[in-house]
Amino acid sequence: MEKIKVLIIDDNKEACEILKEIISRQEDMEVVGIANNGKEAIQMIIEVEPDIMLLDIIMPHLDGLGVLGKLNKSRPKIMVISSSGQDNVTREAIRLGADYFLIKPIDINETVNRIRQIMKSSECSLNVEDSSMHRYRNNQNEFFEIEIKKIFFELGIPSHLKGFLYLKESIEMIFIRKELDIEMKTIYAYLAKKHSSNADRIRKDIRHAIESTWLRGNKDNIIKYFSEKPTNKEFISIIVQKLYL
């Protein structure tokens, strides 16, 4: 089995070494390089050809957004790590092609798990996704990614939870097919196949993400969306309707 090649890009050398140590312990990953500024990063991406890069936003010489802007279409997966959760930073990172966005401080073990999820999602997408999803991603991916990230950040959904990803993909699935009455068991089965899991596990992870958001999310924004704690289907349906507005 080939290891996932990870490139770390951050001007904090101590943080880089900690990340490198944890990632290097994983049997399925290896750190192929560390860059401490944007200019180094551009050259290193060409030289080491990583599968995924962990990219800090604030760096000398060329910041993370500058790095994203210089990458061509043949690029690795990109996990942006930032101390800022501001909408304009998030929107720009997503517009420039970021696959995932984490707010500091990060849980390193959860970050490692997220790397696996991103890479697994990439590998199986062609086998699982139908043609309507491909057409949507070609035409409307930028809109969806920007708006769903904005809504999730507004609500305060914990990004380190598996349910965060499953909620995003559930909403995307319904938004693409334009079927608000699609059965949840169909969604759970789809995600279970995609993530090599089972439907009950998917359901529980989504429920946990919603419960955690209800308890510890942004209360002022939550009440703008929900008058009471929603079920899994209610949560997803309301967000989809919001996207249609």
Automatic annotation (TrEMBL):
Its main location: cytoplasm. GO terms for cellular component: cytoplasm. It comes from the Bacteria. Gene3D superfamilies: 3.40.50.2300, Winged helix-like DNA-binding domain superfamily/Winged helix DNA-binding domain. Ca(2+) binds at residues 10-11, 56. PROSITE patterns: RESPONSE_REGULATORY (PS50110). Its cofactor is Ca(2+). Keywords: Activator, Calcium, Cytoplasm, DNA-binding, Metal-binding, Phosphoprotein, Repressor, Sporulation, Transcription, Transcription regulation, Two-component regulatory system. SUPFAM superfamilies: C-terminal effector domain of the bipartite response regulators (SSF46894), CheY-like (SSF52172). GO terms for molecular function: calcium ion binding; DNA binding; DNA-binding transcription factor activity. Binds 1 Ca(2+) ion per subunit. May play the central regulatory role in sporulation. It may be an element of the effector pathway responsible for the activation of sporulation genes in response to nutritional stress. Spo0A may act in concert with spo0H (a sigma factor) to control the expression of some genes that are critical to the sporulation process. This is Stage 0 sporulation protein A homolog. It comes from Marinisporobacter balticus.
